[in-house]
Amino acid sequence: MLALQKRLSALGYWLGTPDGTFGNLTEQAVYALQKAAGLQRDGIVGAKTRQALDDGVRPAARNLAGNVIQIDLKRQLLMFTTDGKVTWILNTSTGGGYTYTSRGETHQAVTPTGSYSVFRQVEGWDTSPLGQLWRPKYFNGGIALHGYGSVPPYAASHGCVRVSIDAMNWIWDDGMAPIGQRVVVF
């Protein structure tokens, strides 16, 4: 198990500190690898996932200058990049495309594409009309990168970019998304 975690981490799939235990963070990293490889997203390290790991599969980022958080909606991946090179990869869950009602208005659950910057952040839980967001980093109106208790391997949010609570803590603690940080959603 420790070898699996170390290999995932060496490839840039964030899972915290390898500890030899297959927990939620390792499952999140396996989801990200499976997404990058175009495999079934089941969180299980079967033969195809093992082959992708052995082959060193990593997603390609858009060639953008500087430090950029890139969110790939098709693959549901969040990538930290520097000058177009991927440094870290996380499983994410973005807008699920469904219709929902909030404050008497009907909305579509989408994460808009475009280039943005982090303009506001909340240290701790932030209560929105749609629920609780852990340490959100807002980059487009009420849409934020934030921690959440459930980050499935498919699009399921109202439009925000979900990562695990532990991943969001790492993002905050390591200064990965300061105010002004560029965020590109495609």
Fill in the keyword field for this structure.
alpha+beta; single chain; 12 strands; five-stranded mixed beta sheet; 4 helices
Describe the structure.
With 186 residues, this protein is α+β, with helices and mostly antiparallel strands. The protein has four helices and twelve strands, in the order αααβββββββββββαβ. A five-stranded mixed beta sheet has the order 3-2-1-12-6. Strands 7, 8, 9, 10 and 11 form a five-stranded mixed beta sheet that branches. The longest helix has 14 residues, at 24-37. The N and C termini lie far apart (34 Å).
Concise synopsis of the structure shown:
The model has no long low-confidence stretch (mean pLDDT 97).
Overall radius of gyration: 16 Å
Instruction: Give the strand order, joined by hyphens, for the main sheet.
Output: 3-2-1-12-6
Averaging pLDDT over every residue, what do you get? 97
Helix percent band? 10-25%
Total strands: the figure is 12
Given the C-alpha coordinates, what overall shape results?
globular
What separation lies between the terminal Cα atoms? 34 Å
Which regions are unreliable across 5 or more consecutive residues at pLDDT < 50? none
How would you characterize the largest beta sheet? 5 strands, mixed
Q: N-to-C SSE series?
A: HHHEEEEEEEEEEEHE
Strand content: 25-35%
**Helical run tally:** 4
Structural class label:
alpha+beta
